Structure formats: C-alpha cells, structure tokens
Amino acid sequence: MKKKILLLLICVVSIIGCSAGSNNKMNVEAKASDSSESSFFKGKKVLIAYFSWGGTTERMAKEIQNVTGGDLFKIVPEKSYPTDYTECTEVAKVERDKDLRPAISGKVVNFDEYDVVFIGCPVWWHTAPMIISTFVESYDFKGKAVVPFCTYAATYRDETLQKIVDLTPNSKHLKGLGTTGDTDEVKAWIESIGK
Question: How far apart are CA 171 and CA 152, in angstroms?
Fold first, then answer.
C-alpha cells in the first residue's frame, strides 16, 4: 500500500512539474543544436514565427527551421479556434470582417535579438488570419528583414504574402513563398534569398 501511495505521489508531482513548466514556456523552440545562427543570412539570428490551424503551415515552418537553424515561435491563440473546419471558417470570417485582434498566448523572449523574421500562416478568407496582425502589432520590426510565407488550398497566396509585408512597413522584405503544403521548394527558396 505504501508503494502505491508513493508511486501515486510521484506521478502527481511529475504532472504538476510538467504543467508548471509548460505555462512558463514562451512557445519559442530552438533547434536541437541550441544555435539560431544560420549559415544563411550571413550568420544573422533567425526567428520563424507561424500560426498553423491544421498542421500544414507548421510543417513548412519546421522545414524552414531545418534549413536555416533558426528558432521557432508558434503563434498560439489564447482561445483555441474550433477544430471543425466550417466552424473555424465562420470564426475567421467574423474576425476579418470586424478587424479583430485575437489574443496570443505567450510571447517571443528577446525579440530584439533577431535579425531575420519569417512570418507564416495559412490563407484564411483571401488573406492572413487576424492573429497575424496581433502578432506583428506586438513587436517592433523596424530594421529587421521580414520573410513572409503561407500555405493555401486554392489561391490568394500573393494577397496573403502582401498582407504580411503591409503589416511590417518599417522592415526590409525578402521574397516570400506560398505553397499548398509541399516543402520541396523551401531549401531552394532560402538559398535564393539567404545569401
């Protein structure tokens, strides 16, 4: 009986410890090597900030991280979007039509240290989701190089990439990439812009 109680106590302490640690994590995930200095972009520090609803944009962001060695920041809404596609599109349309700014859980620590910031998202209602506006308005992008990327099912790639550029007018902008989820183009794209 004592062993069962001790085992139960250890499990509870472990769960509490993991929960506390995850609440303090600011969503920034460094590459396994703990180096965010890239062989691209003349060794400048790279951040890949992205919002992903279904996982497609996240897959692209992780491939960008794999190529650049940059840090990942997953843009997570405080209030989760519906998991049902139709319900999610309805929420996204209301946010767009009312120019809302959904709150984000967590923030990028030491944002000022990054020189190159990739910003990515899916195409929602012909443009970037409003949570991208929330993210961009939370930081000073002056003097940074911004690289937009997006994933889409049908079209409006160019409009979405342009929206990210428009949201960061005080930045240098590098050529963006939009795909339907295929990551095969990522390395060649980064090689073309990261020299």
Answer: 25
- Split at pLDDT 50, 70, 90, the class of 38 is low
Q: Residue 141 corresponds to which tokens in the numbers above?
A: 């992008």
For residue range 130-151, list pLDDT tens digits in order.
999 999 999 999 999 999 999 9
Query: Distances from the Cα of 58 to the Cαs of 40, 41, 75, 121, 139, in angstroms?
Result: 21, 22, 10, 8, 21
**pTM value > 0.85:** no
Task: Determine the length of the chain.
Answer: 195
Q: How many CB atoms lie within 10 A of CB 143?
A: 10
Give ∠ CA 56-79-149 in degrees, rounded to 5: 30
Whether residue 72 contacts residue 48, with contact meaning beta carbons closer than 8 Å, is answered with yes
Query: How far is the C-alpha of 59 from the C-alpha of 127, rounded, in Å?
Result: 20
Residue 64: what residue type?
I
